[in-house]
Amino acid sequence: MSVDRDHVLAEAAALLTRKATASMDEIAKAAGISRATLHRHFAGRDALVRALEDLGIEQFERALDEARTEEGDAAEALRRLITATEPVAGIMAFLYTENQLYEAGLNEGWNRLDARVTALFQRGQEEGAFRLELSPAWLTEALYGLIGAGAWAVQDGRVAAKDRTRMVAELLLGGAQRRMKQ
Questions:
Q1: Any idea of the CA torsion for 34, 36, 38, 43, to the nearest 10 degrees?
Q2: In angstroms, rounded to a whole number, what is the distance separating the alpha carbons of residues 60 and 48?
Q3: What is the pLDDT of residue 182?
Q4: Contact, 48 vs 100, CB < 8 A?
Q5: Angstrom distance (rounded) from CA 40 to CA 58
Q6: What percent of the chain has pLDDT over 70?
Q7: Is 0.70 topped by the overall pTM?
Q8: Can you give the pLDDT at residue 172?
């Protein structure tokens, strides 16, 4: 039987976004394969998590491309980005909190993502749309955190899936938008 690596990664991501502490046995079962087969594709949990990291980075880059964050008003570009992250929100939530990813050095893909998102926030500050006292790096981290929090809230049934994008955008923009003095 041929094993589709992408299928295994998709099932692992789906399980780990619901249960970050899932064992390799649980991951194999979710993917419909034996633990031995899982280990033939991924030497252990570290290798699997690294593969998920690469997948998450790839998917988030696609979301950035789809959102066309360099075009139009920065706040609207940010809303498009939040919408485009819906399919990848769960895996981003898992990766954002997976400590082992930070112990062995940073994957260069995160730097690419950070640079693109930070550029969006810098542009918004230059346009006068976003608060200047909040650094673009901080706003980038806040976006990642809110994407993750939104995914968990939907998963736990505390927020309707249809409301996630609006709630993430409104909270981030409500805190990031510059207030004009009256």
A1: 160
A2: 18
A3: 59
A4: no
A5: 23
A6: 91
A7: yes
A8: 92
